[in-house]
C-alpha cells in the first residue's frame, strides 16, 4: 500500500506543480498581453502625434510658400509698372527733346515760322551753340570736314551745313 500511497502523493504533487505552472503561465501571459497593449497604445499615440506634427509642418510650409509667391507676384507687378512708367517718361522726354531740337534747327536755319514756347533743355542749348559756332556770318562752314548743301527752289532757297558729332565737340 505504501507504493499506492506514494504514487497518489506523487500524483498530487505533480498536479499541484502543474497547477502552479499553469497559474504562473497564465499570469505571465496576462502580464505580457497588458504590456503589449500598453506598448501598442503608446506607439499609436506617438504615431498620431508625429502625423499631426507632420501635417502642421506641411500646412505651414504651404502657407509660407503661398506668402512668398504673393510677395514675388506683387514685386514683379510693381517692377513691371515702374518699368512702364519709366519707359513712358523716357519716351516723352525723347519726344520733347526731338521736338525741341527740330525747333532749334529750324530757328537756326530760319525755317521756323511759329515761335515755340517750349523750354529748351541744356542739351538743346549746347546743340544750338555748336551749330551757331559752326556757321560763319556768310554761312560758310567753319569746319573743313563740314558739308554744305544748297537747294534752290523757285519759291525758297535753303542752305544747310552738316557736320559730324565728333566735329561739334571741337
From TrEMBL:
Comp. bias regions, Low complexity = 1-16, 70-83
Q: Which InterPro entries match?
A: LEA1/2/D7/KIN2
Compositional bias segments (type: Basic and acidic residues): 28-55
Q: Which gene encodes it?
A: LOC130459502
Residue ranges annotated as coiled coil are none
Residue ranges for the region (Disordered) are 1-83, 131-170
Q: Which Gene3D superfamilies match?
A: Apolipoprotein (1.20.120.20)
Write down the PANTHER family for this protein, in alphabetical order: F6D8.10, LATE EMBRYOGENESIS ABUNDANT PROTEIN (LEA) FAMILY PROTEIN
Q: Which domain of life is it from?
A: Eukaryota
Instruction: Write down what this protein is called.
Output: Late embryogenesis abundant protein 7-like
